[in-house]
Amino acid sequence: MAKMNFGGVIENVVTRDEFSVEKAREVLKNEVVAVIGYGVQGPGQSLNLKDNGINVIVGQRPGKTFDKAVADGWVPGKTLFSIEEACEKATVIEYLLSDAAQIAQWPVVKKHLTPGKALYFSHGFGITFNDRTGIIPPKDVDVIMVAPKGSGTSVRRLFLQGRGINSSYAVYQDATGRALERTLALGIAIGSGYLFETDFKREVYSDLTGERGTLMGAIQGILSAQYEVLREHGHSPSEAFNETVEELTQSLMPLFAEKGMDWMYANTSTTAQRGALDWMGPFHDATKPVFEKLYNEVASGREAQRSIDSNSKPDYREGLEKELKALRDSELWRTGAAVRELRPENK
After folding, report:
1. What is the pTM of this model?
2. Model confidence over 173-199: pLDDT tens digits?
3. What CATH number does domain 210-346 carry, 1.10.1040.10, 3.90.1580.10, 2.40.10.120, 1.10.10.10?
4. Domain boundaries, the chain
């Protein structure tokens, strides 16, 4: 485990140089890893584990997602089972269902958490808010987490590219004395490029804040606000979209992903530099109170309860589709579809 300096703060980091895939195979050689749920994280993590030589099976309820698992090569009765049967066979249960589904399936999973097994999460939600979720594991099992910092699609795509996604890791409960090595081995085996240390509470607080903030909620709010202002002042949809979204995602994001925002600022026109430096302060001051309010809602548990209540409704999927359709049908994203078609690689 290496010590690294992040902006003046020393943190624990694990890389594949010190914890290789070969070492992960050795640690996990006697384990049966059951990936429970084949929705968002399940496909990427299970397929990467399989490709890395780990003994992995999938547990999934019947339906479209079960059929997707079959299409991906999982064989019913051999490597693909019901949730209960997979949990029974496993020594490590990767609990990758949605937060609402984890609550619903918990009695089934808990029944098969016999002494010495490991219960693995990729999100701190169920454990951190266990007064609301009811997910309280027995004391004689390891409770661990590896949380990739990206979608399941990215977990798989980066693995196939020979790269790796950043992931955080945590041990909540060490019943066997092997919890940490199990965690690190699984983190490397699912395709992490490096692992940084956290705990369940910090992971879920930062994750919920990020999703609702700059990763998804805030970015959509800011993009739509700028687009609307440009349109209301007479700019065409294509011009408004290109100046709001296309240049950001296709030109600037790759630059500051590769070199950092400081480098990007230093390598733009002097007019762009001056404007960005002058206006970043007002945007910071305008949005920080919103982020503070958001973080407090997360830390209080109210945001978690809203998610549980909403996602547990029987008509949740229908309501969700209406909201997503409204987003998809907005002028902003209909324009985006047209602009993407014009990209040379899509011709």
Report:
1. 0.91
2. 999 999 999 999 999 999 999 999 999
3. 1.10.1040.10
4. 2-198, 210-346
